[in-house]
Amino acid sequence: MIKYFLIIFTIVAVLVMGIFGFRGRKFRDTPVQIFPDMDVTDKLKSQKPDEFFADGVGSRLPVPGTIVHASDESIYPVEFGEGREGYYFDGKFGDYYGSGMPEELELKPKNAEAFLARGEERYGIYCSVCHGVAGDGNGVTSKYGIVGIANFHAPNYKSDQYPDGRLYDVITNGKGNMGGYGYNIPVRDRWAIVAYVRNMQNAKNIPLKEAAQTK
Ligand code: HEC
Hints:
Number of helices: 8
Bound molecules: heme C
Structural class: mainly alpha
Distance between the termini: 84 Å
Largest sheet: 2 strands, antiparallel
CATH topology of the domain at 82-208: Cytochrome Bc1 Complex, Chain D, domain 2
Strand order of the largest sheet: 1-2
Strand content: under 5%
Radius of gyration: 27 Å
């Protein structure tokens, strides 16, 4: 008995799903909506009339006095450089890692500080959980069992032994137990993080007195 019930139930379920569940085509008539799938929602369509507003227009103008805020994303193209070659995209000159900030960044005295600030912010978001705010490898995750996190103040990570391009490449593709961030962090931000890590390494060697004077 239960066996027949299950068979019939399965057939009916498959039929109902098959007929009403999937709708890939467009058609003129209002569809029979057994599963509405959030088709009907209260929403505004741009460029369409809407009686909700007194002027009957769906598109709204910005509130008077609105100031356009240009974020870094709107000034610089957000690109992830997947599969692209050249120092800017892969940190290499030919087969070797290079050093220095690529010219594509168009760094000038005017925008350098903002670039570094961006790097600090991105480092705080993406790296500090493991590598620590100070870059010493003692981020929160080290307390929860992630071992062997690189300490950027160890001599082998300094710029004379560890090229900028290599640091960039580790951010992009990861290394060993560290995953890559090539799909999350745009190319320009990766370089900003490289600049910030360098800054952090150098800052460690400046006596506090002098550091205070540079500000
Ligand atoms: C989830 C934890 C985690 C995060 C987040 C993380 N790392 Fe790492 N990182 C590691 C671990 C673990 C290693 C050691 C990898 C190994 O040697 O197996 C490492 C190693 C490194 C190394 C040294 C690689 C080498 O050649 O030895 C660099 C450079 C580095 N990370 C940079 C970064 C930067 C920059 C960020 C932020 C974009 C970042 N990491 C985010 C865990 C992390």
